[in-house]
Amino acid sequence: MRIHEIKLREIHMQLVAPFETSMGLTHARRILLLEVNLDGTIGWGECVAGENPFYSPETVETAWEILTTYLWPMVKGKEFVSAADIWPMLEHVRGHNMAKGALEAAVWEAEARQKNVSLAQLIGGIQKHIACGVSIGIKATVEELVEAVKKELAAGYQRIKIKIKPGRDLEEVKALRKEFPQIKLMVDANSAYRLEDWRTLKRLDEFYLMMIEQPLGWDDLFSHIELQRRLDTPICLDECIHSEEQAKAAIDFDACKIINIKLGRVGGFTVAKSIHDLAQQAGIPVWCGGMLESGIGRAHNIALSTLPNFSLPGDVTASNRYWVEDIIEPEVTVTRQGVIHVPTGPGIGFEPRVDLIDKLTVRSEHLY
């Protein structure tokens, strides 16, 4: 196999409603799409880097620079056997997993199309449908949050995740537990707390949550070890896990009881599969987190979620939760039972709407 050319596009997509986390408020997304020509077969990937370096050090701008200046020359004209060979070819660049993951995922998709199999099948997925949870941003009032949860439960979602931050935590969770005593409920702090806040986090034990996601610093594994000792509620690590080595350390030192695997955060399918296998061997469940992806990134998340140890509902939701019009067809839909049926067609199983992508493109670059 050989990559003959790649094309980068930046598109702008307006969210249906603003999404607020402890890191700020998002109204629209700048999304970097990557198109790979693998021996005449086209594969698509999406870089999940944000507009600002708040979730991770990467941004759309840094990813564009790394892809064009460093990653493309590393794979240009090189022969390889399978998409699994791409990750080792990029190892001399430290970090920049989201840029690497976009390129690597696009090659996986192209290989699946070339072999006329689904991406899920190519990576070893076995699940025919995936359970869906939903992530709800910080709302202006508790009453507004309760109404948002009612709406998502009515739509069939199996698990509710709410974003929290200091001062917007205990009251919200208490209200939801009173209103919905039986639902699967979790919270996500996106690193908004510090270890000295452990007494506040300890009070969340009262509300039998599924997990507290990434409560402490994005690179502070040590403090999560101490915090998990003090909590009954499982900690789920997200931002802390960038590699198989970090996942192993988190498991070995009991820094968490659950891991959120995001394709872009770890650098693509090769590393994601390694972390999945490691966690499965250790009896640690995993699930797939979301990054406000377009349909292309969402389709890759669906494929990833078919691996056997993705046993908890992830943040893979219907297209219309975020976009008036998505850039794939058909759009991603969720059943009334809160599941997505995994497509069986070649590659991601959805077709990019190139006409709409072109309309939304604000810049592009073709690399030969």
Uncertain spans, ≥5 residues at pLDDT below 50?
Answer: none
At the fold tier of CATH, the topology name of the largest domain is TIM Barrel
Gross morphology is globular
What's the helix-strand series?
Answer: EEEHHHHEEHEHEHEHEHEHHEHEEEHE
Overall CATH class of the largest domain: Alpha Beta
Name of the CATH superfamily of the largest domain: Enolase-like C-terminal domain
Strand content: 15-25%
Strand order of the largest sheet: 5-6-7-8-9-10-11
Structural class: alpha/beta
Estimate the mean pLDDT confidence. 97
CATH architecture of the largest domain: Alpha-Beta Barrel
Q: CA-to-CA gap between the ends?
A: 16 Å
Summarize the amount of helix as a percent range.
25-40%
How many whole angstroms does the radius of gyration measure?
A: 20 Å
How many individual domains?
Answer: 2
Q: Biggest sheet, open or closed, and with what strands and sense?
A: 7 strands, parallel
Number of strands: 15
Summarize the topology.
Blueprint: E1 3-21, E2 24-38, E3 41-47, H1 60-75, H2 86-89, H3 97-114, H4 119-123, E4 129-131, E5 133-136, H5 142-154, E6 159-163, H6 170-179, E7 184-188, H7 198-203, E8 212-213, H8 221-230, E9 235-237, H9 244-252, E10 258-261, H10 263-266, H11 269-282, E11 286-288, H12 295-304, E12 328-329, E13 339-341, E14 351-352, H13 354-360, E15 361-367
Parallel strand pairs: 5-6, 6-7, 7-8, 8-9, 9-10, 10-11
Antiparallel strand pairs: 1-2, 1-15, 2-3, 4-13, 12-14
Helix pairs in contact: 1-3, 5-6, 9-11
